[in-house]
Every structure is written in structure tokens, then in C-alpha cells.
Amino acid sequence: MTIINNKLSSALIAAICLASLGIFLIEPIAQAPSYHLFADGRSILGVPNFWNVLSNLAFLLVGLLALKNLLIDNNLTIKPELRVATFIFFIGISLVAFGSGYYHLWPSNQTLLWDRLPMTIAFMALFSIIIGEFISLKLAKTALLPLLLVGAFSVFYWSYTESQGQGDLRLYVLVQFLPILLIPVILLLFKSPFSKASGYWWLFATYLAAKFLEYFDQAIFELLPLISGHSLKHLTAAFGVMLLLDAYQKRSLL
């Protein structure tokens, strides 16, 4: 089994290297100006884009609840070696509320930086957690800092290139979407030492649902004029983190 796992791990590393090289074979990708146009632009109580801003509170609530469970109640079933990564993940989720809230007050490339930065930190920490839980604790601990640095750099690099009039999203696209493609592969090919690995599948499913809601922002707002697809995206993504937190609380060693 160890030999098989080593071969699978090597194949995943090779896929990451190939994807990292391949992304730079395509032309630079600038941020489309239409990205900042949302279906629900209503101002309520003097707050522009009110529901897109307010819905971010869900990230703060679930993030703070998770940090309480991790640091005070100490009732999450996680590997001690992954405690730092788990802390960073939930800190990132909490900070998404502020970064995304700020962005949605004044949508622009400049404010989008602060939306993407905490989200990328959370993504990279989660990827490290899954590597540690399913593949190798040693690899996860070694990879955590490089993943966080590359993730943060991808956001700042994109922001800098936009400020120079030649936006380049390629590295950010790689950092965001390669883990999303690899995580289900890891979940299928490797085994967690804990029960309730379904928590990761629920998180993955709600991520896909959130992307669906984001894409059909306008259509959903026309169907449900009280709330748009983008606001529902925030609530759905936060709910996925809540489902993972619930799994962390209820699972046990196999």
C-alpha cells in the first residue's frame, strides 16, 4: 500500500509541475471589467450593494465559531501536526468577510485584491490540510508555508500587472483552480484516518454550487428579486465550511 501511495503521490506532484509549466504557455489573462458588474446593486441604509456586502457576515460567523471550537473548546478531531494549517484556514475564512465585504462596497480591481487575498490563504491552508490528512503529514508541514507564499504572491502579482495595464491572472488561476481539481482526486485515491471524510465532499459540492450561483447571478436575481445569485454564493460557500466544521466535531479515528 505504501508503494502504491508513493506512486500516486509522485503522479500528483508531476501533474502539479506540468500544470504549473503549462499555464504559462497561454497568453496573459486580464481581469474582465464586467467581473465587477453584479445583478443586485441596491443601496440600503446607505450601504451600496447591500446584500452582497451583508451576506459576507456568514464567513465571519462560521470562521469565529470554528476558531472558538479549535482554540477554546478544543473539540475538533484533527491531527496535531495540522493544527497550524487548520488555524490559518479558519482565520482566512473569517478574513474573507472583511475582504469581500470591502470589495463589494466599491467593486474595482484595487479592492478585489483584498477579496482574493484571504480567500487564497484559506484555499492554500485547506490544500495543505488535505495533503496532510490523506497523503503525508511531513509533506503537508513542508508545503504549508510555500503554498501560502505562492498563493499570496499570485494575488499581488495579478494586482501589480493590472496596475501596469497588462493584467495577468494566469498564476492566480493556477493557484485557485488546480487544488480544486486535485482535491477530489486525492479524496478518491487516498484514505483519511478519520471517519466523516464526507465533510470534504460537502465542502467541494457547495463550492461548485457557489460557482453556479455566481455564474447565474442575474438570472437568479430575476427569479428571486429579493436576493441575487452572488449573495447566495456567499451564503452557500459559508455553509460548506460549516458542514466541514460539523464533520471535524463529530468524526473519530478509524
Summarize the entry for a quick read:
The protein is an all-alpha fold and about 250 residues long.
Characterise the protein shown here.
Helix 3 (57-73) runs parallel beside helix 10 and helix 8 runs antiparallel to helix 10 (229-250). The protein has 10 helices and no strands. It has a domain at 48-192. It has helices at residues 2-22, 50-54, 57-73, 83-105, 109-134, 137-163, 170-189, 198-215, 217-223, 229-250. With 254 residues, it is mainly α. 35% of the residues are buried.
SSE inventory with pairings:
Blueprint (H helix, E strand, L loop, with lengths): L1 H21 L27 H5 L2 H17 L9 H23 L3 H26 L2 H27 L6 H20 L8 H18 L1 H7 L5 H22 L4
Q: Tell me the structural class.
A: mainly alpha
How would you characterize the largest beta sheet?
A: none
Radius of gyration: 19 Å
- Count of alpha and pi helical runs: 10
Overall shape: it is globular
Terminal-residue CA separation: 17 Å
Estimate the helix proportion, in percent.
Answer: over 70%
How many beta-strand segments? 0
Order of SSEs: HHHHHHHHHH
Spans where pLDDT lies below 50 across 5 or more residues: none
- Strand percentage lies at under 5%
The average pLDDT score comes to 94
